[in-house]
Amino acid sequence: MKRAIIAAFAAIILGSGAYADTIKIGVVGPFSGPFALQGKNFKAGIDAYMAMHGTTVGDDTVKIIYRDLPAADPAQSKALAQELVVKEKVQYLAGFYFTPDAMAVTPILKQADVPLIVMNAATSAIVTKSPLVVRTSFTTWQTSTPIAKVAHDAGVAKVISIVSDYGPGIDAENAFKAGFEKEGGAVVEAIRMPLSTNDFSPIMQRIKDSGAQGVFAFLPSGPTTLGFVKAYNENGLKAAGIKFFAPGDLTQESDLPALGDAALGIQTTFHYAVSHDSPENKAFVEAASKAIGNPAELSFPSVGAFDGMNVIYKMIEATGGEQDAQKAVDAVKGLSWISPRGPVSIDPESRHITQNIYLREVTKADDGSYYNKEIQTFEKQGDPGLAAIK
Ligand code: PHB
User: Fold this and answer.
1) Which candidate, 156, 225, 259, 335, has a CA 20 to 30 Å from the CA of 134?
2) pLDDT tens string 181-190
């Protein structure tokens, strides 16, 4: 009460909410446009966390302020972050689906005294751009390294690699190549296509012409991944026995109803499957389904957001609600907990999440629905990408 009165006076005198008991978190993501479902998953994860853990930390109330960034747009991302910091006085920045958007915000963190909790963007280098970045999603190095071993173990010796030509795609290409060559395999051709590509027929022809026995692919989850997997099927590559290997972005659960049998049998490696069998995930899926409305729309950005909120709550607790970005970040170095995805921890040096990566296969359930069935676990995976870019 006393604190509330002081805060009210301070707010009047200073004309700002700097001493208020409300802690604002600015969340930037695609909430409209072609990637809106990914942003909807950010919100579902955040809502699920707050439904399960409350909306207060100590005597502080947490308030989320959303800003819509429909497509990768670094200039707009920076402008939104600046507005959130200066006008809204957010103490935390979070969300960020696309790598260029997260990258664009890292230069303002120190001066703003605000940590950035990356809930999706997956290029390894993001955490190296500021000591105030913590990531609760994954990197494409982390998810694309194990699939190289899977491809080799499936008896495939020659692979063609196809990725979107930007940060996480280039990381995925390098990760797969490094892992596959270590196993004795060869990447016969590596194609980088513009992020805006949506006609995949010419690419499918190049895959056929390459003589490769398998294709490795990474595109950011959304309408493009759906189009790519459909094209793989419709252009007869699946029927021709050309095997498909990818990180789990290519078979996100929300795409599976539209893909139907086209995705059946595809093996991917990823940090999270909605079907993950654990009490923590059961509770999460229940809360997140309620939040999103249609459970068939649940996908991996929800878990990155849910765990991101866990990190932010720990930060608020450790700082007693005061604004001290470095203290907040230091407080979560080494933090470990059981996530809906399995056991995780924040690596104290990189501030990136260490986690299990699972091999999954798209499977048809008895009720006719499709899901990613976990069939193997690669335990406690750090980010191999950080060593690679040193
Ligand atoms: C990224 O831009 O870092 C990104 C976006 C979507 C994904 C993976 C990575 O599925």
Assistant:
1) 225
2) 999 999 999 9
